[in-house]
Structures are given as structure tokens and as C-alpha cells.
Write a structure and sequence with these properties.
Length: 391
């Protein structure tokens, strides 16, 4: 690990910044951005003076990447658009990336990788949803992911994933040695996600046309998030509670969402209060919406980790979530866990929360659970993993 004397061996890291160079991003973009912010902070310290980081930015992505204001990273331009790059990946015609940027440790945060000649490759593989729940992935994206992740596994010197559940799935499916996989957990930025005051909550609700008390869901509007079960559970509530609480769905349009929207329209025709915000909800406004919710529900059928439940817990909102995949690992004792497909049980747990039974203890446990994950710790673990690859 050391060269002459006590001087550490130089660690040159190159990060594919495509996911940081788009206007709006979901889980992968948030994970990459928050992890890189924490790495940026570490580079301010003497302990990491031997580490340098370069981030590639597609020719169209500079304005979006610039919003992060990274202090210690060098920006490198990729003159191909992401569309062209992905096409070249699909036909296996991408040139080795270290021909252009030199020998470094190359980190690819979005499943797929470039080839290299002499440099180690480290992909981030978040989960195997495209293997275990292929029915929820669009056919073009499914074909791309299956082929590209297989290539990434063959190229990888080390693999980063985000939960013990995902690590085990990678071992089982690809036969990857356990010591070749590093778990770098996501976390929640506690400077942004915390309980907001009544005045701020009221302002944000007014901004998006939200009135009264509400049950909250936050994620993409797509089948894997299991919104049909949530809608059934809401439909199954007593009429008195449906009048008292609306169901607020915050999320971008996803794949295969026609059944979800048809169900929402049908319920609205029966005067059920299923609400979608009147405008795109910004990241800055989410903490207030979490804080104002009576309960947050996340009934997903599969997750690589599951950040929204932790964001809700950080805002001191009680959480109900599924007991599958990595979600028990993420929420611990800080959330009520149910069978994802049991809408009647979900209705029952909603009623218990409305009655206030155990809510105070649940919120306290949720706050404690959020504290077990920390971006600073995750950034240090990432750099330790890349040090191992470098040596």
C-alpha cells in the first residue's frame, strides 16, 4: 500500500459522470452525486492528498454537472453523446477509455462499462432487478442491461454494490467471489432531510395544490413500485378515513404505467382523493412533503436498497414498507414491514398509524436507523476499496 517511506502510492480515479450530467435524475443519480460530494470533502484532508479524481462529462452535460460545484475534481470532456456511447456499447465498438485518459482506476456508476487496455475497471451494480423482475423492465433496456452487466462482470477488477442482499444476488447469479464485491451503502443527507416546520409545510403544500392530511408515496410511477397494491389498500379504507386522508403520489412517469393511471382515473370518478402534484416536485421541496405526511408508504416488490423510506424516517414520518429484497436491511426496526401484495394488511396498518398506536416509538426507531448510514463513512469505504484495486 505504500511506496518509499510513509508516502502513499498515488491513486488516480476516473469516474464516468454521465449520470451526473442530466437535468433530472432518480436513484442512481442521487446515489452517485451524494457519494461524490462526500469523496470531494475527503479530498480536502491531508489523509487523501495522494488521491486525485477526474470526472467525465458528455458534451451536452456541462450545465447540469456544474450545479454540483465539486472543488477537487478535474472535469474531462467526452465528445460523444450518451445515446451514441450506449449504441457503441451495444455493438461492442467502444474504444478502450484509457487510450484517451491514461492509466487510472475507472469507476462506472451505472451498470455498464467501457473496455480498458491496462487499467482496472470498477462498475457499480445496484441490484439484479432486470434478472429477477424482468417483467418490469422495457425490452430494449432489458436487452441492454443483460448484455452490459455480463460484460461489466468480466471486465471488473472489483464490484461495488449497495446492500448485502444485492451482493448475495450477484454471488449467486454470476458466481462472483465474495471478496471481489464491496458494499458501499447509500445514506441520507441529514442537512436536507429533517423535520420541517408547520409554516414551511403549508407553503410547499400550497405550491403543489395539496390540501389536508395525506398518505405519501415517493418514487417512479411504475409497476415494480407496486402502486396497484397501495391504491387497493386506500380503496379498502373506511369512507370516513378516505375523506380525512388523501393519497399523494409523487414521482416521475415510468415504464408500463397505464394500469396504474387507469386505476387512478377510476378511483377519482368515485370521488376518491388520489392526488398527483400539480407540478414537478423539486428535491428541495421533498423534505417538507415528507414532514407533512401522516404516513409514508413504500410497497415496492423489489429494491436494491430503498432510499425514500429512510428520507421519510429522517423527516420523522412513520413508514410502512415491504418485507422483501433489501428493504428489511435498509429500514431495520424503523418501519412497519408487510407482505408487498397484501393490500388488506396494508389497510390495517394504515388504520393503526392513523390511530397513533406505536407511532412515537416507530419514529424514534426510524431516526436511529437513519443514523446507521453515513455518506462520509461510505466515501471512505469506497476509497479503501479503490486503494485495494490500485495496489
Amino acid at each position: 500500500m505504500y511506496s518509499m517511506g510513509n508516502q502513499k502510492k498515488k491513486l488516480k480515479i476516473f469516474v464516468d459522470g454521465e449520470v451526473l450530467s442530466i437535468a433530472h435524475f432518480s436513484g442512481i443519480g442521487h446515489y452517485t452525486a451524494d457519494l461524490m460530494k462526500a469523496v470531494d470533502d475527503l479530498l480536502d484532508t491531508d489523509e487523501y492528498a495522494h488521491v486525485s479524481v477526474e470526472v467525465s462529462v458528455p458534451r451536452t452535460g456541462s450545465p447540469f454537472y456544474a450545479r454540483f460545484n465539486f472543488r477537487n475534481f478535474k472535469t474531462r470532456r467526452i465528445y460523444l453523446s450518451p445515446r451514441v456511447t450506449n449504441k457503441l456499447k451495444s455493438i461492442k465498438r467502444l474504444p478502450p477509455i484509457d487510450l484517451f485518459f491514461g492509466r487510472k482506476v475507472y469507476v462506472f456508476p451505472h451498470y455498464s462499462t467501457w473496455p480498458t487496455l491496462r487499467s482496472p475497471v470498477v462498475p457499480i451494480i445496484y441490484d439484479l432487478s432486470f434478472i429477477h423482475h424482468a417483467q418490469y423492465v422495457s425490452p430494449p433496456n432489458l436487452k441492454f442491461l443483460v448484455g452490459q452487466v455480463d460484460l461489466s462482470m468480466k471486465r471488473a477488477k472489483q464490484i461495488i454494490t449497495i446492500s448485502q442482499n444485492s451482493k448475495q444476488e450477484i454471488i449467486d447469479h454470476y458466481g462472483t467471489p465474495e471478496d471481489k464485491i464491496s458494499i458501499i451503502y447509500p445514506a441520507v443527507d441529514r442537512n436536507s432531510f429533517y423535520k420541517r416546520g408547520d409554516e414551511e409545510i403549508a407553503d410547499i403544500k400550497a405550491k403543489y395544490g395539496i390540501f389536508g392530511d395525506y398518505i405519501l408515496f415517493v418514487s417512479n410511477i411504475e409497476p415494480r413500485k407496486n402502486l396497484i397494491t397501495l391504491l387497493k389498500a386506500y380503496d379498502n379504507l373506511p369512507a370516513k378515513l378516505q375523506k380525512e386522508y388523501s393519497l399523494l403520489l409523487v414521482g416521475a412517469k415510468g415504464w408500463l404505467d397505464s394500469e396504474i393511471h387507469d386505476t387512478i382515473i377510476s378511483m377519482r370518478k368515485r370521488s376518491l382523493r388520489v392526488v398527483l402534484p400539480s407540478d414537478y416536485v423539486t428535491d428541495e421541496d421533498l423534505p417538507a412533503l415528507y414532514s407533512g405526511a401522516t404516513v409514508f408508504v413504500y410497497p415496492s416488490v423489489y429494491e436494491g436498497f430503498g432510499i425514500p423510506p429512510l428520507e421519510a424516517m429522517a423527516c420523522q414520518t412513520p413508514v410502512i414498507t415491504s418485507n422483501n429484497s433489501s428493504l428489511p436491511e435498509a429500514v431495520g426496526n424503523g418501519a412497519i414491514q408487510i407482505d408487498a401484495m397484501d393490500y388488506k394488511e396494508l389497510s390495517k396498518q394504515l388504520i393503526l398509524v392513523f390511530d397513533g398506536l406505536g407511532v412515537s416509538a416507530l419514529v424514534k426507531a426510524g431516526t436511529k436507523q437513519v443514523g446507521t448510514f453515513d455518506w462520509h463513512k461510505s466515501a471512505k469505504l469506497m476509497l479503501e476499496s479503490l486503494e485495494k484495486v490500485n495496489n
